[in-house]
Every structure is written in structure tokens, then in C-alpha cells.
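Structural prep section.
Before we set up the soaks we want a predicted structure of the protein with flavin-adenine dinucleotide in place, mainly to decide which crystallisation condition to try first. Input record follows.
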Amino acid sequence: MDVAALVKLALDVEGLRAEPGEAPRVDQAPTKVSEIDLNAVEEAVSIRERVGGSVTAFSVLNWGPLSRRMREAREAAKRVLAMGADRFVLVADEAAVGADTGFTAAALAAALRARGPFDLVLAGEGTEDSFGGLVPGRLAQELGWPYVPYADGVEVGGGGSVRVRRAVGDFEEVVEVDLPAVISVTQEINKPRIPTLMQILQAGKKPLEVLSLSDLGLPGPGAGRGVRVSSVVSPRVERRGVVIEAESPREAAERLVEELRRAGVI
Amino acid sequence: MSFDAVVVGAGPAGSAAALQMARRGMSVLLVERGERPGTKNVFGGRMYSWALEKLVPGFRGEAPLEREVTREVLGFLWRDSWVEFQVGRGERAAGQGYTLLRPRFDSWLAEVAEGEGVTLVSGIRVDAPVVEGGRVTGIAAGPDRIAAPVTILAEGALGLLAEAAGLRPPTRARDFAVGVKEVLELPEEKIEDRFGLSSGEGSAQLYLGDFTGGIPGGGFVYTNRDTISVGVTLRLGAYSAGEARARTWEVLERFKSHPRIASYLRGGRLVEYSAHSLPETQYGRVRAAGPGVAAVGDAAGLAANLGITVRGMDFALESGRLAAEAAASGDLLSYPRALREGPVGRTFERFGAAARFMENPRLYSSYPRVIVAAASRSFDVREEVRGEGLIGIARSELGAAGVSTVRALLDVLAAARSM
Ligand SMILES: Cc1cc2nc3c(=O)[nH]c(=O)nc-3n(C[C@H](O)[C@H](O)[C@H](O)COP(=O)(O)OP(=O)(O)OC[C@H]3O[C@@H](n4cnc5c(N)ncnc54)[C@H](O)[C@@H]3O)c2cc1C
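Run finished without errors. Recording the C-alpha cells verbatim:
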């Protein structure tokens, strides 16, 4: 089975710096592979290990500046290839930076068509920076394929379908879906493997292909801004700044309890 | 997959060794356990640049340096008063060094090495050197083994792999020093105004005083581009590691709230803090090379611990380069000699005296007080002229601090000899 896995270079939220009430400095924050996308890669690789075929990872760079992100993207690709993907296709273009999910999905669809055919597309249920969770569904629509979100398990039988397990509220649903299809996975589906030294070394020899929008025959700037982000600010967190001074730990503890009661915390 | 050499650790020593071997035509694998080189290194300090100059002559335009150090300050703090000795260099003095932040610097140097053809693998911890028949033949990491005729250990101060390779005696649990540091963010222009620097210039400042409560150690302030590194280092042999850390934070708070230091830091926003044990100076206790293996940088004990500051980045870079040259010449065992006879060895030969001098307890208790009190008294003007000379003042302050004049003169001589 030929599987595609979608991989986003998400902003590393821990590396994001901002003054309260101001926009975070996105250009200076590092990016890394969104955690749940690693579950998608793991699932794709383990499917190939079970039934044969191939795994291709696809990524569209959403964050700028491109010069810096390319280096991070190469590192990310290396990690995904070391986990066992066979090749990595990266769409990198200034015009795709900051594009909305509709445009990202269109770019992915074009890349999938150009490098396909594929039987199955796996993606994380959401990415850890914006967690829109929209790209897999919009991609399915672009491709005209069925879409099953939030998979906790994927079973590949013979024939042209797969069985997907989903935890929905407090019951479990099993869905059978005809291929080709798009499936988004949760973090519960598996535990992504940690590549070994040898696997990382071999990853260096696997193909990493970089495509621009014009390589894919897609329109340039101006396209894909159906949704515009009008502002991003970090919240103001007010601290009360109460300092408790006391003679003994006991007295300090008592005053702390008193203070917490007054604040209605306990 | 085979390599001419494997290097463990992408700190300055490891990247320098890898880079230089690659330049000499060797195929090199560099393995780093951090997710990226430098992520595990949180020092913000000052690097003397002579060794980098030899390794990457054009580094000035490329390396992520914060500021060139053109000011040196030695300060004494006593209660609310202080004395600062400032040395300023009008012309930029090449080789005197730069302040820098390690995560950026280390990844830059590793990239330079990659540019020369080094294969860098991050996120992998090397478990052990592979030793066969008294010879190191490569490394083991998880399920994998990589064989190579040359293995360079650049793993830093702990030196566990160097120990396993038979180069280093087991680490002694002796006096250790703890350092804590904060990085405070301030606008570039503010830093320049406060420290009296022009653009790109930096200041390296060391302090002794009563803020350590008599514990040997001191404080430091380094200016980066738009941050200030401030910290204290203490020799706390008598305490457990946990207790020592707690103590050290207290001392840092006292240091930071001294009016002089506070005036530098005002309005700074805390962006990072860290605590570290400082590497012991181990020069002479570590064999720098054995069959198939060499140790470089801190793994070879090449950190000069001078009480308040540690100097090691320049030694790390130089030792890495020398080991690489030896490996490329086919005679790795010539490296220890090159190290001993070069600037690194010559510095450490003289280092013992300085280190002993820094162990003098009066440096941390009586002298800051004597210096501050004597200096401030000599500027005192009251209604009456008292007419004591500087020597008279110094004498009476020494007396007040319980140090005899002869003792003090001997200490001054020792200081002069050890510098
Ligand atoms: C608090 C403090 C302040 C200092 N201040 C200064 C200063 O101002 N100026 C100065 O010149 N020096 C200073 N030093 C000393 C300086 O940091 C060291 O001398 C220098 O970093 C040594 O470089 P290195 O490459 O040998 O080791 P390190 O920089 O320690 O690098 C070792 C690398 O090896 C990696 N590693 C370790 N084990 C493994 C393993 N098993 N497998 C794979 N990778 C591994 C580590 O992650 C690390 O990246 C200071 C040190 C400390 C602790």
C-alpha cells in the first residue's frame, strides 16, 4: 500500500516570546514537527511494515522566514525519514507562508497528485500551534476522497478498504472506508519510534524533494487568503504579588491558607 | 557505513575536532545527544577568541557573537558601598574575546563543520566507547555500533566515556563549585548607556565581596547584545548538592540587590536561569590520548576553574584542533605532546599558582572590606582635615579587619606572582 503522511512544521510554542498584550515574535521562534504528525508517520511506517508498499511524507511550509525555516525543515525531514519514511516532499514558497488551511490543502493535493498515486493519506488530528484540524478534511474534499477523522486504530485488511477505530465520547465506533481515503489520527493510536543512530545515518541518503508553487502549477501570491488572521496577542496574566513574611514556617503556612481562603481559591 | 573518525559531543571541542579532520580529508561522524548542538549548554559568558581565530579565521563576520569585550571590571562590594577598577581598551583588541550565548554559538560551529563535510547526528546519546584488546575501535549507541580507526571524546566535564576508555581516573567527589546564572533582557541602547559602551562593545565584570557571606566565590556580570548575564559561583565543598544550590540562589539575590549591581540590571526582564556544577580543573590527571582514542576539551580536564569564572572554551577549541591534526597525520598519540607544548599546556603550567591564590580566604572576607573602606575614606571630606595618608588609612582598615600588615603585603606579593 502506498501511504502519504502529512507533516507540519509547527511553531514550537515553548520557544515563543511575547510581551503581554503584544504579538508574539513568530519569526524568532523555532519550529519542529508537530507531535501528532509523528503518530501519523509512525502509523504509515507500521502499515508498510505489515503489508508492504511505500511511505511518502508531505509538508507545506506555513511559517517564515523561509531562509531559516528551510534548515529546520531539513532537520524535520531527516527525523521523519529516520523513522522509516521512504521519501520527503517539501513545498516551500514565500507565497505559501501564512496561507490559510484551504490553500495549504490545495497545495498538498497538487503535490500528492504530482507524486502519486496513493492509496491512503494519514495526518495528525490537529497541529500543536494552531490546532485548526481543518487541513485533512479540506484535502479530502480537494481530492474527492472519503475522510475519517480522529482514528485510534487503523486495520488494513485485503481488498480496497481499511477499518478505522474511533473513540467518540464514551463509545467506540468502527468504520470501514473505501480506499483511497484520508484519515486523521489521535495521539493514542501508537507511540512514535525514536530513531537509532544507524537509522538517522541512512535517512541522510533518502530523497528530499523541494517543490515551489510554480512546480505544482499553482497560482502565486494573493491566492489562498480566504481567512485572514487579524490579530494575535499574548494574554495579560495579572499577578497579585502577595509576599508572606512570618517568623516560623507554621505561621507562614497559616497565613498562606488565610490568604488563599480570602482569594476564594480554597 | 564507515568513517575515518567518530567524535562524541558537539560542544566547541567536538565540533572543532570534527571540522579540522574533515578539512584534512577525513570522513567524520559527529554525534550529539542534545536535540541540537548547544541545547544542553546554557552558559552565557565570555570566550577568549585566539583559538577560534586559528580554527575559523573569518569568524568575526559569521559567528553569532554578542559583544566584543573591550572593558574589564574588577569590583569589590562591601555593604552598600563599592570600588570598581575598570580597564578600557580604546582600540578593539583582537583576541581578548567576546561574550556569547552557547546555544547559538554551538549550533553555528557545528554547521561550519557540516559545511566541511562532517556528518552530524543529533538526538543520539553515545553509551560507551568500544574497547577491543586495549584499543578503542569505535562507539556504541543503543543497538548500533560504529567502527572507526579514530574516536575523539568531547563529551564535556563528566568524562564518563573518557573514563571508560581508560583515559581518566574515576571522578573524585571533592570540593565542587556551583554556579547559578540569570539572563535578563534589556534593550540594546539601554545596555550601552548604562555600561558606557559603544555599539558592539561589551563589558566583563567580576566581583568579590561580602554578598557571599564569606564563602569563597564571587559574582559576574557580562553584557550580551540585548541581554545581561548575571550570576554567582561558590565553592561549597561542605554542603550537599541540593543545599549548595539553595545557598547559591540566596547569594545571587544578595548580589543582585547590591545598589551597584542593581543599577546595571534595573528593568531587566528575566528570560532564563540555570544552575551548574563547575568542572574541576583536571589538567595532568587525564591522559589525552590512547590507542585509537583522544579526549579533548572538558573531557580532557581542560577547564581552568578560577573560583569565580571558568575558562575553557578556548582550550576546548584548541585541543580539538590539535587532536584533529594529530589524527590526520596518522599519529594520534602525538596529540598529548602538541597539547602540552602549545598554549594550552603552557597556560595550565602556570595556572596552579593562580588557583592557589584564589583559595586565599581573605580574598572573600577581609579584603573587599579593606579596599572599599580605605578607598571611600580617602575621598571623605569632613569639616576637619584628618590628614591620614592612604597608607595610614589602609593600615587602620586592615587592623579593623584583623589582618596584619605583613600578611597583607605577602598576599599582595602572591597576587603579583600568580597573575
Ligand atoms: C557555569 C559555567 C560557566 C562557564 N563560563 C565560561 C566562560 O565564561 N568562558 C569560558 O571560556 N568557559 C566557561 N566555562 C567552561 C566551558 O563551558 C567549557 O570549558 C566548554 O564548554 C568545554 O567545551 P567541550 O566541548 O569540551 O564540552 P561541552 O561544551 O560540555 O560539550 C559537550 C557536548 O557533548 C555532549 N555529550 C555529552 N555526553 C554525550 C554522549 N554520551 N553522547 C553524545 N553527546 C554527548 C553534550 O550534550 C555537549 O553538547 C563555563 C562552564 C560552566 C559550567
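Observations: Residues 236-266 of chain A form one domain.
Flagged for discussion at group meeting.
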